[in-house]
Amino acid sequence: MESTLQNFHGLKNVLNYRQIEMIARARTHRVVNRLNQEPNLFKIYGDIIKEQEKRGFIEKIKENEDEPQRIHYIPHHPVKKDSTTTPIRIVYDCSCKENAKSPSLNDCLHSYPPISNDITELLTRFRTQKFAVTTDIEKAFLQVGLHKSDRDVTRFFWLSDPTDSTSPFTTYRFKSVLFGATCSPFILNATLLKHFKENPSPTASRITQDLYVDNVLTSFTAEDDLMQFYRDSRCLLQKGGFNLRSWNSNSNRLRELAETENVLDSSNEVNILGMRWNVADDKLLFAEVDIDSTMGK
């Protein structure tokens, strides 16, 4: 599915892309040097970019391409995650500025809040019925195409040889909506709602009311209805180019089916909109927070 990062008209000449290009190069060099101290993370970082190119989310800039009217470069850096499968993720800094007075890419984008469901209502519906289920959309933002005329404002650098930290940089650009652009949550939300509207069904209505960004959490009275939702929702999202993964439920039937189809989240505890869900005990938990006991004036 394709959408557009908009609207740059009237602001395109404000961005000094030559200056931001130097900043992006310098910051990428620092990232390479830092990752080079941890060979495993260095490899994982390069593998993420390699996979994004393989799946068509990004592309290399060809040397003989004509220079477009609008160009911008985005620095990026790693953030460590508490995950055994993906210990780091790449963050693209669309808020990077040439200086304090210059605009960032995010400053030049229209930013509208997505049409989000109320979290309290979501959690209430999630616990109302006997059989609860959670799932999320795999790489949701990257599944939404970026208009060709906007792709060159999402350029970034990485090594031409991901195994050699001294190799020259190659220039990439996004072909899809990237997480980090201020308008991306709205674009993803609008794309999903449009898809559900064009494919009306009880399942589409259910997901529309129980969706939060790229997460779905809902519950059913009958286990058979839960199983039907699993099949119908996966089919509905696949029709739009999305994949529902990381399924978890207090239903053993659903967990067994999801495991056979390699979309099961086997964790005993699942993050639920800021809370924790112990699937085995079927209880919602609050994460412990260390409170500063220091007395103030």
UniProtKB/TrEMBL annotation:
Reverse transcriptase domain boundaries: 88-244
Pfam families the UniProt entry points to: RVT_1
Gene3D superfamilies: 3.30.70.270, HIV Type 1 Reverse Transcriptase, subunit A, domain 1 (3.10.10.10)
SUPFAM superfamilies xrefs: DNA/RNA polymerases (SSF56672)
InterPro entries: DNA/RNA_pol_sf, Rev_trsase/Diguanyl_cyclase, RT_dom
Family matches, as CDD domains: RT_pepA17
Protein name: Reverse transcriptase domain-containing protein
Source organism of the structure: Mytilus galloprovincialis
